[in-house]
């Protein structure tokens, strides 16, 4: 099982607290999810969306487990101890790291999305220019419409 032995980061100033139950599960899921999102972000940066797509199943499973564990911890909040306990601080530190990773991932995805949309928009504009009727001068220097240009086929098959 992937949750058996993940690497949990330790804080430089103090030892990692001994977590148990749902809090230990949350820490493990947070680290696994953060590593997976970092890996997906790197694949997208390297322009390998098909390989990144293969990670979606695992990412969805980890997110569902993460959400379930958060819900259980909210119900049993007393397991984390006082509001300023070491366990809470450590989990907050892990969660802040996950949030930063998600922000980086969102920036990469939005950048790729805007580039793709711009490319599709420019191709569409070029196709519409070719398909629009051409205005020209006829006999007696009067404006006339010429026939439309030959049809152009366009096929885009890539999904990011």
How would you characterize this protein structure?
The protein has 160 residues and is mainly alpha-helical. It has a domain at 22-119. 60% of the residues lie in helices and 4% in strands. The chain contains four helices and two strands. It has helices at residues 21-45, 49-53, 56-75, 86-131, and strands at 135-137, 143-145. Strands 1-2 form a two-stranded antiparallel ribbon. A hairpin with a 5-residue loop joins strand 1 and strand 2 (143-145). Helix 1 (21-45) packs antiparallel against helix 3 (56-75) and helix 1 runs parallel beside helix 4. The longest helix is centred in the last third of the chain and has 46 residues, at 86-131. It is rod-shaped and about 90 Å long. The two termini are 30 Å apart. The relative contact order is 0.11. Residues 1-5 have low confidence and may be disordered.
List the main descriptive attributes of the protein structure presented here:
two-stranded antiparallel ribbon; 2 strands; 160 residues; mainly alpha; disordered N terminus
Topology:
Layout: H1 21-45, H2 49-53, H3 56-75, H4 86-131, E1 135-137, E2 143-145
Antiparallel strand pairs: 1-2
**Sequence stretches where pLDDT stays below 50 over 5 or more residues:** 1-5
Ends apart, CA distance between termini: 30 Å
Q: Rounded to an integer, what's the Rg over CA atoms?
A: 27 Å
- List how many beta strands DSSP finds: 2
Shape: rod-shaped
Q: State the major sheet.
A: 2 strands, antiparallel
Helix content: 55-70%
Please, what is the average pLDDT? 77
Strand order of the largest sheet: 1-2
SSE order, one letter for each helix or strand: HHHHEE
**Which structural class fits the helix and strand makeup?**
mainly alpha
What is the strand content? Answer: under 5%
Output the number of helix runs. Answer: 4
